Predict the structure.
Amino acid sequence: MPELERHSFDVLVIGAGGAGLRAAIEAREHGMRTAVLCKSLFGKAHTVMAEGGIAAAMGNVNSNDSWQVHFRDTMRGGKFLNNWRMAELHAREAPDRVWELETYGALFDRTKDGRISQRNFGGHEYPRLAHVGDRTGLELIRSLQQKVVSLQQDDFAETGDYESRLKVFQEFTVTDLVLDDGRVAGAFGYWRESGRFVLFEAPAVVLATGGIGKSFKVTSNSWEYTGDGHALALRAGASLINMEFVQFHPTGMVWPPSVKGILVTESVRGDGGVLRNSDGKRFMFDYIPEVFKDKYADNEAEADRWYADPEHNRRPPELLPRDEVARAINSEVKAGRGSEHGGVFLDVSTRLPAEEITRRLPSMHHQFKELADVDITAQPMEVGPTCHYVMGGVQVDPDTGASSVPGLFAAGEVSGGMHGSNRLGGNSLSDLLVFGRRAGAGASGYVSELSARPVCSSEAVAEAERVAVAPFSGSDEGGENPYTLHMELQQAMNDLVGIIRKAEEMDQAIKRLDELKRRAATLVVEGHRQFNPGWHLALDLRNMLVVSECVAKAALMRTESRGGHTRDDYPQMEADWRRKLLVCRLPGADGPGASVEVVEEPQIPIRSDLLELFEHAELQKYLTADELEG
Amino acid sequence: MGYQGHFRVWRGSDQGGGLEDFTVEVNEGEVVLDVIHRLQATQTPDLAVRWNCKAGKCGSCSAEINGKPRLLCMTRMSVFAEDETVTVTPMRTFPVIRDLVTDVSYNYRKAREIPSFKPPAGVAPGEYRMQQVDVERSQEFRKCIECFLCNNTCHVIRDHEENKESFAGPRFLMRVAELEMHPLDEADRVAQAQSSHGLGLCNITKCCSDVCPEHIKITDNALIPMKERVADQRYDPIVWLGNKLFRRS
Ligand SMILES: Cc1cc2nc3c(=O)[nH]c(=O)nc-3n(C[C@H](O)[C@H](O)[C@H](O)COP(=O)(O)OP(=O)(O)OC[C@H]3O[C@@H](n4cnc5c(N)ncnc54)[C@H](O)[C@@H]3O)c2cc1C
Ligand code: SF4
Ligand code: SF4
Ligand code: FES
């Protein structure tokens, strides 16, 4: 075996999406020697796919907007389960983070007076999403990528080496974190291209690995979303919260089968698109929940007036938070009022002139034309729910992104708490920037205060290596094919822990996962380590399985319905449950039989000045009687 | 609905390789990438291919299909006859790593050679003001998903390894144009486009624009206007300087 490649950095950022790049920029600006590791090419992380926009209360379109209103919307969207401190920091800092992007060269769509334009989105009281057509994620990632390059150019001018302070290692997968006496000491992984192993020694690691959607069959997520960061954190001894909350986006493509799950941006509805069932009825009016009755129109005339006159009319119910819309679509299809391919109709063609549609929604127009032979300026789209985002993730300190493991930080989709039980559209991109920056600063602060650097022991490294090559030495007869196992996992999660859940099914899911875990121990892959997707999948499966176990076990424990967690057997939201977090840990992480443990822990009460931002009547819908008195 | 399709896929490494024949199921509505994935799952678990979004947004899955540079995820199987053999090969301009995966590091090197956005001095974040019509030109170029198909296609480097040193390729010449047309960028980029990034080597054949999956008019809207600016500047630098300084007022 060739000698192990080694690198040493101050701060290691795992992930090159919005959160990772913003964290890396911050760490480098704090003088840390920083590395960014990512599984795909630089500039292609999942963030690139975000479409609709980035939420920030800049008040450019409606000057009534403020961080307080944004905070309120975020808490409502998350059904008050959010970590209120994160929601506060997010709402306060998002505008600065968006403006900062302009200094990196970003070009958002403009208002008439030359400022950044903002659009309407589900759950946001005012037009709040900064955007570039429907390719906002591309603009965000490209701007951050170009800022990284610009810092590298500065370093080149000074040191003669572009990579002297900030280096990107692309197409590299981290398989394990290395600890020294419970503290982070580095990370171990392989070059996807050559399969060669590398050890990164670093006292601080920022996890920015994104989500977990690849454990579900119908998903808007790409192959990267295998929950690696969630699993790395668990194995390192950190805890995950809110894992029962998985967001199903109401509008994914449903036809043809090969594109099932691919996202149809919420901007289609924000810009006037409406949902109809097979009877041609705008059914969302029948699904406005009690808690939102005073904010959403109950008739078409008022809903239609809202686009031009939001001050005097209530919003169209198509713009309810995502969990509500996804459930409504699900019910319509179940009641037999679905479209030919098991979705409902999303129509913008009868609502806007064709040129307007191609200007505002160019990539949707392109996507449907090329992939489904549908012209959205003339025909409705067929859409249905798709697994989109995980609210759950690493439990962190809101101000610094620090997890409970010294030296381990997390930001972006891999972290938990900010969005509570349900994320509002547009609140992820802003989350990435606000908390990416904070985690980069947090990690830098941690490193500068260290007196001695932790060490990666050779035993720990040898163990990581053993685990990584195991699939090559699996016994040939009866060995499991990773593709087969992955398909079974996706089917189980989709069917048994999907959008509507019940106890028997989740029990079954947990048993199924147990069995899959046992079979995963005998995974066999063919070929060699050079760019071998079968091997990559075999290693990813280890992460998907443990993360799926968190989702299933936490979902079974939470006996209520809230946000991205809907139970057929417990359809009500219970104020008592709002005060409880379900915390997942993996005791005995290195053992093969390790099993996820979920415990109930109390939620930190909301600070009183933030509570005062709400009307008492609204709080009554969410809080218990003694909380209201206290 | 489904049928057995004929595929020829290039397999190999930097050490060499060749086309291999496969017969594989094709279903209604599928794209070429779906079929490549089916090959991975059923016949060739170690077939190397890059992809991410499967919706033409990330620019990972570039390759050549029947000799034409394209995205695997945006090429529908319905454009081929059922009895037609579909040949999939890696991008030719970049060195092969394995199978359909090429070494695209040339592009990242070139990206670094283009001086970055130079923010306007004295304008605080939050104070940037630009009109929609003025940002639209650069916004067109910022639609670029960095699939590098244009660079793969451009004959200046496709058949001439030796030009790679001095030629940024259409993707990054367009990046220069994007910054040059950015309403608030303060750097002077015209002279460098010619001297450092090889704009002069482009003879406006438009092959790059033809393959761009984002339908960006690279040649008409970025390269030709840059060439015009170079010509203007050479002809009368004083006039050019005036234009540059006062064009926003
Ligand atoms: C189709 C779509 C549209 C969306 N639209 C919007 C929107 O309009 N507004 C909004 O706010 N949100 C939107 N979202 C959600 C948002 O895009 C994501 O939540 C967000 O981009 C996640 O960013 P991130 O930085 O956390 O991670 P990502 O951008 O996903 O990046 C994760 C990074 O981690 C790397 N990584 C993962 N595992 C490893 C490992 N083991 N080793 C090394 N590297 C690893 C990956 O390679 C990648 O670079 C959308 C999501 C989707 C799928
Ligand atoms: S127009 Fe210029 S850059 Fe484009 S392919 Fe032709 S020579 Fe190359
Ligand atoms: S300009 Fe077009 S062809 Fe060239 S890299 Fe960008 S998207 Fe691809
Ligand atoms: S996979 Fe993203 S462009 Fe094809």
Q: What stands out?
A: The beta strands of chain B are 3-13, 16-26, 62-65, 68-71, 85-89, 96-98, 101-102. Chain B touches chain A through 56 residues (CB under 8 Å). Chain B has ten helices and seven strands. Residues B 153-154, 156, 170, 202-208, 219, 223 surround iron/sulfur cluster (ligand 2) (CB under 6 Å).
